[in-house]
Write a structure and sequence with these properties.
Strand content of chain C: 15-25%
Distance between the termini of chain C: 21 Å
CATH topology of chain C: Alpha-Beta Plaits
Structural class of chain C: alpha+beta
Oligomer: heterotrimer
Largest interface: A-B, 21 and 35 residues
Largest sheet of chain C: 2 strands, antiparallel
Strand order of the largest sheet of chain B: 1-9-8-13-10-11-12
Number of helices of chain C: 5
Helix content of chain B: 40-55%
Strand content of chain B: 5-15%
Strand order of the largest sheet of chain C: 1-6
CATH class of chain C: Alpha Beta
Radius of gyration of chain C: 15 Å
Chains: A mainly beta (65), B alpha+beta (748), C alpha+beta (140)
CATH architecture of the largest domain in chain B: 4-Layer Sandwich
Number of domains of chain B: 3
CATH topology of the largest domain in chain B: Aldehyde Ferredoxin Oxidoreductase,  A, domain 1
Distance between the termini of chain B: 63 Å
CATH class of the largest domain in chain B: Alpha Beta
Number of helices of chain B: 29
Helix content of chain C: 10-25%
Number of strands of chain B: 17
CATH superfamily of the largest domain in chain B: Aldehyde ferredoxin oxidoreductase, N-terminal domain
Radius of gyration of chain B: 25 Å
């Protein structure tokens, strides 16, 4: 089990940040993603592996008119 | 998964062809004939001057009853306490009206005020004016911000604001010539009302030649303003490349209705030729460097962030859908399977690219997109080929999904007619969504709507209703009253359960909600209903912070956000800034900064430019205090006009939770979980009705607790009245201000 | 269309000349003694990399100018009409090659207009006004 923005989420082996964003439908382009203490930049979403028990934060900035 | 866009191939193939953006139906009206019919009622002269460090130190007052035209002073107190923009507007209006003044009384005013930052050409988003009046919808002050060239051209003609009072007996226009130093009031019997024609004609009429057209800006309403309470103002600018005028809107609160009630067809300004230093800042170099920095940021980052330059604010349509926040069918649902038909890639195709679409010089965010080559299918301009301004996100959500309309061309046509008739697209969207839900629930039927079948998605009926309203006919006259008055109108006739009408009528203080679903974000429910002018997202947009990021877990956290953001955003309206360049692009290293959601580097930009313009130094705290003065003054102004208390900050239940069983079922898993986690009950043992009722009790209670926390943080009593301490601390303890709150504060 | 081209081999990135092109541009075009004020620059960067910084008349600035003050002339050269310029510097910020420049004394920005004054000044005959195909306007 991992936590994404304080909500529990089922963990599976090989899971990446991109998998989390897809599962949560986090489509917003201006995100700040942290895996534990580490900032993950956009180009590494697909490569960044998420370990079991990880605390993931996906902070959405503001937008809109 | 198949291609979700497969059915749209033909549409895309058609519009992928580069549109000729100069192709549109020519207006064949004889301008000379119109002008010959003008009768000069009054003309006076003034000495044009450019601002120094952001201020001209005078305003222009025009009374259209008495034809008096005079200068108004801009005092040091005004500059210190009210800054400009919305602050100046509210201050002038306060002195013009009494607690008994109604929107249609001659003493009601329309004040148009750009701020001290107005007209900076180097930094995106500096062309805004703020318009203030007593609203026909809310009966309290409304402030509406608008782009277009009028504000900066007024500033560069030598005025910090334009204040209009009185009521004319005949149709008139006001012409301010900032090149020659004349102001005239002219009877203008023949001009048509609809803005896309009127602004075009007046630009032609008052420009000395083709090159002069960019120096003209027209403020006008449209035929709907004569026949409804929701008329809005259009502010024009001349688009040199397209060779036509473009329009931006001061939409909210019915200001166009006030303009037409004064029998003013238009206010035309002819400003001086704009140069990069026309506003004479104290430190041009800082402004230039800060501006270029943001231009670079937009060039590098916008394509991978919000793509504002291509899609404008409509880039978030599919995003809102993905987060269950897009208003669908009067805010019942937050997403829809057909959203892809109105998603941003459509607008990318449909809006003309390869041009510059800023609504003031130097706005490289350029979100004022233009969709060219639309052939109208209905109404008085049927068959005409037109350019449509927008659609912005609010228009797609309001005119589209909220009415169950997922047809891009229909949305464009609705958008066009809203603009030219002078109808706020947000207001219309929420009104139409309300009447369509009433139709769905049998509160309305064909008999009651004079034959209109207002089913979800029926864009032809939607347009017909709009044409009716614009021309004061049929059921259109009723919808032109707005949701608040319609609820009463229906209830008086025994149409529907009054409690249900209260639940689903998405208005607060008499103003319609803007187009975001706030049900799952308590902070945003407050962000909508605990506002000064009524529910809009101009004060706070907290849904991501609250609902998605979970950054605001406690009532106090939410209250802090509802303290900071409304003040921060008010500051834009005091100074003449647009808020979009603040948060619709963010610097590459923003994530490394403390409180990245505030976009700290951009806050620093604004501080730097404020200092560079005025030659002063202010901190973030000073900034918030500047806003707090005006914000609290406006709250007290509301109280003075009979609103502004806790009871007026109540929200319709549709904005807070599931009204109907269907709404509950659409999010059953989420709602059931909340019953377990938040209420300690067992949904498995409850009927659907019990679950809906449990949610209502829990959600309503939370909203009251939030209200307590917010009022406390803002320095207000539990009834929502700013305390003596807060009023004194802010330095707005003028005798006439204290007089308003005194009876209320002595009660507690 | 016409554009200023620099033959970097001949030029040798200004390693063994006095940057006469820049001086000529600054003094004759901009009436200024400081070669930094020229509209072209030959730069030897700290990392050893060399660069000729000069406008290639790509036309991006024509697209982004809000005042329609930038236009191609008959030869395809992008010219700024100072009377129309509102000094917003969108062209400066949106120039990918950073060749649209400004200086603190002038309100209007400037760039190379392929006038050819630098050609005569170059001791190595490394510069030419070349004819190249005009690119179509980009979406920026």
């Amino acid at each position: 089990m991992i936590k994404v923005n304080d909500d529990p989420m089922e963990w599976r082996d090989g899971m990446t940040i991109q998998d989390i964003l897809d599962a949560k439908k986090y489509k917003f382009p201006m995100l700040i993603v942290t895996l534990g203490e580490e900032h993950i930049s956009k180009e590494h979403y697909s490569a960044a592996k998420v370990p079991d028990g990880a605390i993931v934060k996906v902070i959405h900035l503001l937008s809109g008119g | 998964m198949g291609n979700p866009y497969a059915g749209l191939t033909d549409y895309l193939a058609f519009h992928r062809v580069e549109t000729n953006y100069r192709h549109r139906t020519e207006c064949d009206t004889d301008v000379a004939k119109l002008r010959a019919a003008h009768r000069l009622l009054k003309e006076t002269t003034f000495t044009p001057k450019l601002p120094e460090r952001g201020y001209c130190h005078r305003g222009m007052y025009i009374n259209v009853s008495t034809l008096e035209i005079k200068e108004q002073p801009v005092t040091q107190t005004m500059k210190d306490i009210f800054i400009g923009g919305r602050g100046f507007g509210l201050w002038q209006l306060w002195h013009a009206v009494t607690p008994k003044t109604r929107w249609c009384d001659p003493e009601n005013e329309i004040i148009i005020s750009p701020g001290p930052m107005s007209g900076i050409t180097q930094y995106p988003g500096s062309g805004k004016s703020i318009v203030v009046t007593i609203s026909p919808q809310t009966e309290i002050p409304i402030d509406s911000n608008v782009g277009g060239y009028f504000g900066p051209l007024l500033k560069f003609s030598g005025y910090d604001f334009l204040e209009i009072q009185g009521k004319s007996e005949k149709d008139i226009l006001i012409f301010i010539d900032g090149q020659n130093g004349t102001v005239s009031i002219e009877e203008c019997p023949l001009e048509p009302l609809d803005s896309h024609i009127l602004a075009e004609l007046l630009t032609e009429m008052y420009a000395e030649n083709e090159a002069d057209k960019v120096n003209i800006s027209v403020v006008s309403a449209g035929s709907a303003a004569d026949n409804s309470l929701i008329g809005m103002l259009n502010f024009s600018w001349f688009d040199k490349r397209r060779g036509c005028i473009r329009l931006k809107q001061a939409g909210r609160g019915g200001i166009g209705t006030v303009l037409r009630n004064k029998r003013i067809k238009a206010i035309v300004i002819r400003g001086p030729v704009v140069k990069g230093d026309s506003n004479h800042p104290a430190d041009f170099e800082t402004i230039a460097k800060t501006g270029i920095k943001l231009h670079r940021e937009l060039r590098e980052l916008d394509p991978s962030q919000c793509v504002m330059r291509r899609n404008g604010t409509a880039h978030i349509v599919e995003i809102m859908d993905a987060y269950d926040l897009l208003p669908v069918m009067n805010f019942q649902y937050g997403s829809h399977p057909e959203t892809h038909k109105i998603a941003s890639y459509i607008w990318d195709m449909r809006c003309t690219q390869r041009t510059n679409d800023g609504c003031w010089y130097g706005c490289s965010m350029a979100c004022a997109k233009g969709a060219d080559g639309l052939t109208l299918r209905t109404g008085p301009y049927k068959g005409h080929v037109v350019t449509v301004d927008g659609p912005e996100y609010e228009n797609v959500g309001g005119l589209g999904s909220n009415a169950g309309i997922f047809d891009a061309e229909a949305i464009l046509e609705l958008n066009f007619y809203c603009d030219t008739y002078g109808i706020c697209t947000i207001t219309w969207g929420t009104i139409c969504a309300f009447v369509m839900e009433c139709y769905q629930r049998g509160i309305l039927n064909k008999e009651r709507t004079d034959g209109l079948e207002l089913n979800w998605g029926n864009w032809e009926a939607d347009l017909e209703l709009m044409h009716q309203m614009a021309h004061g006919e049929g059921f259109g006259r009723i919808v032109g009253l707005g949701v608040h008055k319609m609820k009463q109108f229906f209830a008086d006739r025994g149409w529907g359960d009054p409690a249900l009408l209260e639940d689903i009528g998405m208005e607060n203080k008499g103003l319609e909600y803007s187009q975001y679903l706030s049900k799952e974000s308590l902070a945003q429910q407050g962000g909508y209903a605990m506002t000064n002018k009524g529910p809009q997202h101009d004060e706070a947009w907290l849904i991501f912070m609250d609902m998605v990021n979970k950054q605001l877990p406690t009532f106090e956290d939410k209250a802090e956000a509802l303290y900071y953001f409304p003040l921060w955003r008010t500051w834009f309206g005091l100074n003449g800034w647009c808020k979009l360049p603040w948060n619709d692009v963010s610097p590459k290293d923003n994530h490394l900064r403390h409180e990245p959601h505030k976009i700290p580097e951009h806050v620093e930009n604004y501080l730097a430019m404020h200092g560079a313009m005025l030659g002063t130094n202010i901190t973030v705290e000073d900034m918030l205090n500047q806003s707090a003065r005006v914000y609290n003054f406006q709250r007290i102004f509301n109280i003075r006009m009979g609103k502004g208390l806790r009871i007026h900050d109540k929200a319709p239940y549709r904005s807070m939770g599931p009204v109907s069983n269907e709404e509950y079922t659409s999010r059953e898993e989420r709602y059931d979980q909340q019953i377990i986690d938040e209420m300690g009950l067992e949904p498995a043992k409850m009927t659907l009705e019990e679950k809906v009722a449990a949610h209502r009790a829990w959600r309503t209670d939370r909203y009251e607790k939030l209200t307590d926390a917010v009022y406390k943080r803002r320095g207000w009593t539990p009834n929502g009245v700013p305390t003596y301490e807060r009023i004194k601390e802010l330095g707005i303890d003028f005798p006439e201000v204290l007089e308003v709150v005194e009876p209320l504060l002595s009660q507690t | 269309m016409k554009t200023l081209k620099i033959d970097v081999d001949k030029c040798n990135y200004g390693r063994d000349c006095g940057h006469e092109c820049e001086s000529a541009c600054a003094s004759k075009v901009f009436k200024h003694n400081d070669p930094l004020r020229a509209a072209l620059h030959i730069r030897l960067l700290e990392n050893g990399e060399c660069r000729a910084i000069v406008c290639d008349q790509c036309g991006d600035c024509v697209v982004v100018c809000p005042a329609d003050a930038l236009k191609r002339n008959k030869k395809g050269i992008v010219l700024l009409d100072k009377k129309l310029c509102v000094g917003c510097y969108t062209c400066v910020g949106f120039c990918e090659k950073n060749v649209f420049e400004r200086n603190p004394e002038w309100l209007e920005p400037y760039k190379c207009i392929a006038c050819g004054i630098c050609l005569k000044a170059c001791p190595k005959a490394a510069l030419e006004i070349a004819e190249v195909p005009a690119p179509s306007p980009r979406i920026i």
